[in-house]
Amino acid sequence: xxxxxxxxxxxxxxxxxxxxxxxxxxxxxxxxxxxQFGLTIHDGYGQTETIILAAxxxxxxxxxxxxxxxxxxxxxxxxGDDLNEMRDGEVGQIAVRVRPERPPSLFxxxxxxxxxxxxxxxxxxxxxxxxxxxxxxxxxxxxxRADDVIISAGYRIGPFEVESALLEHPAVMESAVVxxxxxxxxxxxxxxxxxxxxxxxxxxxxxxxxxxVKRITAPYKYPREVEFIDDLPxxxxxxxxxxxxxxxxxxxxxxx
Length: 256
Hints:
It is a single chain. The protein is α+β, with helices and mostly antiparallel strands. It folds into 2 domains: 144 residues, Rossmann fold (3-Layer(aba) Sandwich); 106 residues, GMP Synthetase, Chain A, domain 3 (2-Layer Sandwich), CATH 3.30.300. It is 21% helix and 29% strand. The protein has 5 helices and 14 strands. The longest helix has 14 residues.
């Protein structure tokens, strides 16, 4: 929301360093901020259960859109359902190795919930429930929560990449991408889009956004349905509640 403002009106001469937390920042947000203020936002990744697990530390090369490299002292990997490490570019779950040495920064357990604790500690790992890819330089790229990843006609599609592509379109203020049940594909990609003030909704714009995503990402990732919305549901801390949108779609399709 901040970078949609007229940033040319502002000046921060004493600002030296910028970091991002809470939600991954789209690459275009980082680029707009850099062009206006000459500072690159250093994004990172962590959970309530952990300290920061990956980061773009000062002095590192920043790849906009990446959560950076594993934080010193943590063996962070991208693994599959069989707990084996994925190859570069393959989607898997972010995991922290806890054997033979458990990082002291990791939480002990979920309070009075042994079942949930057992569900996240598997083999030699703590499983974060977040999906990502790793590139050939070891940088980690967020894909989405396990529940948010869309499986459509056998393809695994991360909502964050589609949302980032939509955000590059000049008409889009915000977007949220979720799975919508489909009898043929199992699920399709659906985008809920909040437009900038003054932009007119319509089928022509929806088709334009679909073609835009095809060009930016890949043809199979484009949202087959686009719904314009006044506001996206969010938590008190500003995170988009995709689960609420998914449930809305499931209820709608169930009713026919």
